[in-house]
Amino acid sequence: MNPFARRNSIRQAFSRGRQGVTDDELLIRGAAGDDNAFRTLVERWQGRVFGFLVRMLGSEAEAEDMAQETFIRMCKSAGTYRDEGRFASWLFRIAGNLARSRARRRKIVQFISFDPSEHDVPVAPEADRDVQLRELREALRRALEKLPKRQREAFVLRYDAQRSHAEIARELDTTVSAVETLLHRAKAALREPLGEWI
Questions:
Q1: Nearest to 156 by CA among 92, 102, 103, 104
Q2: Where are the domains of the chain?
Q3: Residue 137: is it exposed, middle or buried by C-beta count within 10 angstroms (0-12/13-18/19+)?
Q4: Mind listing the pLDDT tens digit for each residue in 94-143?
Q5: How many Cα atoms within 13 Å fall on the side-chain side of residue 77?
């Protein structure tokens, strides 16, 4: 089997919900007037989009507004979507563009801490672990703030939104090799301030 065809079939399997319907199929149904299909997509993706936007914007209130706007744009643009099995990449491109636009208007690009307890990652109740997580979040926040904007965006898209290098390249309107360079430089820059945690 062609490795790209295999990757797409794996991606489609992950994008199927409990009803066995892919995100692409739901978007096509929504574009045809099925409001329940849009509702299902929002339910599937709202947590991930919100978490991504929190880390891009640094504010839960702004992330909530931008998440809502992301889904409004998803519904309005559904008719222009090409069914390629890349719904997640398309949706995160909408969210990322909105976040960058908001940040430009504010003239501030600030990334806040990655808080595993807020994003469906189990946290051990032990006090030592809580202290370590707080220290790690603060160190990560400070380190991300010091990265150049493009490196931050590539890093957040890769390690937070779990995007592939090709998806990041499309989202940032650059080449895959440029993305690899951005990620390499970001990891090298983060290695010193986060050395004890990575």
A1: 92
A2: 1-110, 112-198
A3: middle
A4: 998 888 888 776 643 334 344 444 444 444 445 566 677 777 777 777 78
A5: 15
To the question of pTM greater than 0.90 for the whole model, the response is no
* CATH classification code of 1-110: 1.10.1740.10
Fold type of domain 112-198: Arc Repressor Mutant, subunit A (1.10.10)
In angstroms, the Cα distances linking 83 to 93, 116, 127, 191 are: 15, 33, 48, 39
Q: d(Cα 171, Cα 167) in Å, to the nearest integer? A: 6
Q: At what angle do helices 35-57 and 60-77 cross, to 10 degrees?
A: 140
- The answer to whether residues 65 and 98 touch, using CB atoms and an 8 Å cutoff, is no
Report the C-alpha gap between 57 and 64 in whole angstroms.
Answer: 10
Among residues 74, 94, 95, 64, which one has the least CA distance to residue 26?
Answer: 74
Write down the pLDDT at residue 26: 92
pLDDT (tens digit, 9 = 90+) per residue, 37-54? Answer: 999 999 999 999 998 888
